[in-house]
Design brief:
Length: 176
Amino acid sequence: MAPLDNRDVRIMIPQVRRALDPGVASASAASSYSDAMIAAITADATSELLMLGGPISFPFTLSIASADMITGYPTGWFIDPEPPLEIQALISLQAALGQVFNELRGLVTTEKIVNEGGTWEYTKSVQILRDKVGLLIAQRDTALKNAIRVVPALDSISDLVAFRAPTIAANIDVIQ
């Protein structure tokens, strides 16, 4: 297998996987996400940063490298120019934060199950969910500060990115 082009979003799969599934560095049975899913999540996070910043603040482009032959849906992406490690960290943490938000949208924290054999109830800890989101936001904000050193124009989107974080936190408060 030929080495990946450093512009290929797949180069960030291990980094995004660690942000999504801490402690799981490879596509093992312990991972909740396939490599293809992580590549798509990474492309989504890149496009989100492009939408927030535009070409001046986020001076990278996302292009389709490959598409499904039947549906035409993208299956591979390139980021141009090659993103430095600081930008890769920002994209990875934005990907994890976006995915956690998507997972929390339909989350039920308490469920009661009743059938002919009995009744049982379980509860997921809202505090752990809040802490996970808080940690991701803090890590993403640190990554953004580091990325601004490499691409100073990113400073203009820092307010927009920070503005979105309370929305995620508010949704967790609603879950309680």
